[in-house]
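Shape matters. As here.
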Amino acid sequence: MELLSRYGTVAAYTALRHPQRVQALILVDAAIYTGGGAPGWAKPLLKTPQMRRLGPVVARNLLSQNKDLLNQTWHDPSKVTPDILEGYSKPTKVENWDKAFWEFTLASRDLKLSERLAELRLPVLVITGDDDRIVPTEESIRLSEELPSASLVVIPDCGHVPQEECPGPFMKALVAFIQKMPIQLRGYGIKPPS
């Protein structure tokens, strides 16, 4: 689930590095204030030959608890169907997925994005569930307050993956935001306001 939280971090970092390429951002439960991988003191230890061998084992053990992680991620774990669980398990059936996951963990670092939020002057939609236990809802609220041009949508009775658990309210917020954007929307099935 940490991986899901990092998409927003990557999006914000991209907007800062290449502002000419990004017209707006939609940040869903973005781990801007938390995350960044292992603490600095642990990085050298994690890169030792021994940990390079043990790391994938740790990744396998962690993600073998997929059901427990999903229960923590969703507001209502009873909505996690066998198909949803299978969807989350599918990537773990690819050869060397555990090594890739471990390398991703090693490559993660604190980008200090929270110190640069004022630079993100483009329109931003921050979306969160009111019961996000992975990236606390309070962090998304704080993020929307610290971004110069952000709007916030908090979806009730929803957890860390509102796009999956609460697709109706999520899409409603998304479409309303996109329809306000002065960007080219041809081919996306969304008509700009007249």
